[in-house]
Amino acid sequence: MNINPGETRSTVPPFDTAKLDGLMEEAGIDVIVATSKHNTQYLMGGYKFIFFAVMDAIGHSRYLPMVIYEKGAPDHSAYVGNRMEGAEHQNNPFWTPAVHTATWGTLDAAGLAVEHLKKIGKAGGRIGIEPAFLPSDARDLLASRLEGARFADATHALERLRAVKTPDELAKLRSASELITGAMLATISAVRAGSTKKQIIEQLRREETNRGLHFEYCLLTLGSSHNRAASPQAWAEGEVLSIDSGGNYHGYIGDLCRMAVLGEPDAELEDLLAEVASIQQAAFAKVRAGPAGGEMIEAAEAVLKASPSAAFTDFFCHGMGLISHEAPFLMTNHPVAYEGIDAHRPLEAGMVISVETTMLHPKRGFIKLEDTLAITDTGYEMFGDRGRGWNRGGL
Fold this sequence. Notes:
With 395 residues, the protein is of the alpha/beta class. The chain is globular.
């Protein structure tokens, strides 16, 4: 793809190449072929093709963007994309020196990747791929046409690359959290006695969309139920509401949970939410750059263990950014199936974590707080720090 006369472009990679080179050296990888939407977006400086922002399938195949990066040689980088992305490149030129916007499916994308790898002399190298995000037909083609290549899992290297957020990423995560909090509080105020779960979720979807978010999900409970799926169940006077939502702002995830009650909270409800908040605060007190992430987990679990509601309460913490569970990985298989490989590593300024405490009370229902924290040298900054007490519905 040629640049139009007079057109300018930056060929400077929008990520820390020295850090990625080191991670690739550690993993024994010569060249990465990234294929996940989140990692291609990251490596392309935030770019994501709007036509396939939600769907992937088209015709008999699917959209498969690729970013090819050779260790120590960013001038050998390439972007492989859909044929329609040529117009995107024309209007806002991509940074990669080579741009191949000529695909409609997985096999033509893989074929162009093979051609590029041969061109830069890496057809027989150790190639880093994302196994969970590389379709089998594309991998088979790569393997059949790159006879001397060895394939390695580049997932960990790319996760470490994204672990510490840039100021621009932090701003997007802050906006995502603030907008979701605003949408949840507006929804709680708008709905009334008799509003069903389906109606409340639809109200939240509209509130998030009107604020510039891409609505992703809402997990909602009413009354004593622990079922968070949409249903015709209606909100009744005196019942609690738990609203947990994820929204996407320019590719970055906001994920928070807030509580409400239709009427005034009684003394028991105040005490139960205070228990949840005390576990959250125990975790917050240990959050800053330097100490191991596991210290925060231990502090929260110590308070949880002493809680009167410990038998039906759970604490969880996970990293977040472009996806809802990413580095730092602080807990093992709890509840998502991955290992807590970062529990003994120091937290770093710029990492972002979600801290959540969930109480499944047998009579009063689902009581939960989920907060988003950006780690700093001296502590943390909380994103979306509103509505953490009992919010009143129908006001």
